[in-house]
Specification:
This protein has six helices and nine strands, in the order E-E-E-H-E-H-E-H-H-H-E-H-E-E-E. The protein is an alpha/beta fold.
């Protein structure tokens, strides 16, 4: 189903997350309220340790919240079995990790094709779709290179292609520019915005890199486990 721009992809209401450390409970999220809309690049910003990655992981269904309500594409993931949750993520969510997580033995085009191959698409079709996407990102001459032969910016483009190749409706990114210089980081975010943001998809990026704040449609400020401000 194609969703209209600005429809709600993620809705969080009074979300908390508590971790047990020894005999102590540590509250990482303290009643988060947040909406993430289709057709927008939303930045989740705040100081280190404020709960950004925890919130991203809860939204993506990697962690369960302790309390509160989360809806992702109108689904409450807490009602899913572990298997159904994995299948949902595989269909509907694309991930861009801080350290890329590319497979060293695979080429760029093979790395980007991994989600399609896991989903059961024929390898030839998966590679072709991956190739088309990477070529659109300016990687036509690097398709057969392994990660060790790629620059940081090139590896990040492969990671973005891998997150988009199965056409998810939610893309989540954890500090995608943290290992890059300012110019490269800005170019990567521009590429992410140009390729990933579309009317039926939401993109949520965790970052503390204020050099890319100008690219966000909405900026949600998180501090001490709570949303303190949203800039539109």
């Amino acid at each position: 189903m194609i969703r209209p721009a600005n429809s709600t992809i993620v809705s969080c209401r009074n979300v908390t997350k508590t971790f047990r450390q020894g005999s102590t409970d540590v509250m990482a999220l303290r009643g988060v309220d947040l909406d993430v809309f289709a057709g927008q690049l939303t930045l989740l910003v705040g100081p280190s340790g404020c709960g950004k990655t925890t919130l991203l992981s809860v939204i993506a269904g990697i962690l369960d919240q302790t309390a509160g309500e989360i809806s992702v594409l109108d689904q409450d993931l807490n009602h899913f079995s572990p298997t159904d949750k994995v299948l949902f993520r595989g269909r509907e969510i694309g991930f861009v990790f801080q350290h890329y997580n590319l497979l060293p033995a695979l080429t760029a085009v093979e790395n980007a094709a991994v989600p399609l191959i896991i989903a059961g698409q024929p390898r030839r079709r998966a590679i072709e779709k991956s190739r088309e996407l990477l070529e659109s990102m300016g990687m036509a001459d690097r398709l057969d290179s392994r990660p060790s032969k790629l620059s940081g910016g090139e590896q990040q483009r492969v990671a973005i292609a891998r997150a988009l190749v199965h056409e998810p409706r939610l893309v989540v990114c954890d500090e995608p520019t943290s290992a890059l210089d300012g110019h490269t980081g800005h170019k990567i975010m521009e590429s992410l915005r140009q390729i990933a943001v579309r009317p039926d998809r939401a993109v949520l990026v965790v970052t503390h890199d204020n050099r890319v704040f100008d690219l966000g449609d909405r900026i949600a400020h998180l501090d001490d486990g709570k949303i303190t401000q949203i800039e539109e």
